[in-house]
Amino acid sequence: xxxxxxxxxxxxxxxxxxxxxxxxxxxxxxxxxxxxxxxxxxxxxxxxxxxxxxxxxxxxxxxxxxxxxxxxxxxxxxxxxxxxxxxxxxxxxxxxxxxxxxxxxxxxxxxxxxxxxxxxxxxxxxxxxxxxxxxxxxxxxxxxxxxxxxxxxxxxxxxxxxxxxxxxxxxxxxxxxxxxxxxxxxxxxxxxxxxxxxxxxxxxxxxxxxxxxxxxxxxxxxxxxxxxxxxxxxxxxxxxxxxxxxxxxxxxxxxxxxxxxxxxxxxxxxxxxxxxxxxxxxxxxxxxxxxxxxxxxxxxxxxxxxxx
Length: 308
Description:
The chain is an alpha/beta fold. It folds into 2 domains: about 5-220, Spore Coat Polysaccharide Biosynthesis Protein SpsA, Chain A (Alpha-Beta Complex); about 240-305, no CATH class. The chain is built from 11 helices and 12 strands. It has helices spanning about 15-25, 45-55, 70-85, 105-115, 155-160, 180-185, 195-205, 240-245, 255-265, 270-285, 290-305, and strands at about 5-10, 35-40, 60-65, 90, 95-100, 115-125, 130-135, 135-140, 145, 160-165, 175, 210-220. Strands 1, 2, 3, 4, 5, 6, 7, 10, 11 and 12 form a 10-stranded mixed beta sheet that branches. α9 packs antiparallel against α10. The longest helix is centred in the N-terminal third of the chain and has 16 residues, at about 70-85. It is globular, with a radius of gyration of 21 Å.
């Protein structure tokens, strides 16, 4: 039986040292029908020059630094569609990930077992090997991208190979058939230039009838410290920092992204609540802004004194 080709797609902006490790992981795969596609979105550290001179078979695409993650994926997928056959696959994965030699083989074995499915990876912290992500369930009554802790326990994962029926997946190590693009379209660059584009894309796929599966044996070791703005504990902000946290494309807490996700996919009965929760989040972080936080503390102190 003829093997399908897997197009391994990533986007990079600098961090050549990580890209070198990432490329080596792909070249060492025991699944040999793999084509590497890298979108270099405006790197100035010699990334494109290094790839061009050392890896002639890599499909290298250039961006101007304004594609972000979603635009880069779209540009890569458009090229893949020109070359791929209808039975081929696309693997989206970040360049700050490493994985073992049988990684793509594991994903492909799952794709054969689960027809019309999208196969996600078990994502581990590369330093602690703690499970970082293993599929998302939507909790619309909390506007929560819920990670089921029971499905992320090491003892559970060591006993079972798969878990199914997730609502969405990250693009950090997810395999899907090329024909998915013709079924649901590409990633939504207009509404989600960077964050949430993967959750929206795979949620859309789930709504179109695709089953979302996580293969626990397909392990990805990710540098989880290289996350965007909003992943850290926040105690005090300047007003500029507050605006960046709420509205910057680099922020995981971007309320415009969250609004668009709710607008496009929230069940109607939860939409008012979800919009209210987005507003409440903005207010919550506003009280971390100095001097607003100082004013709040003063009001609380005065209230306590009055009660006495």
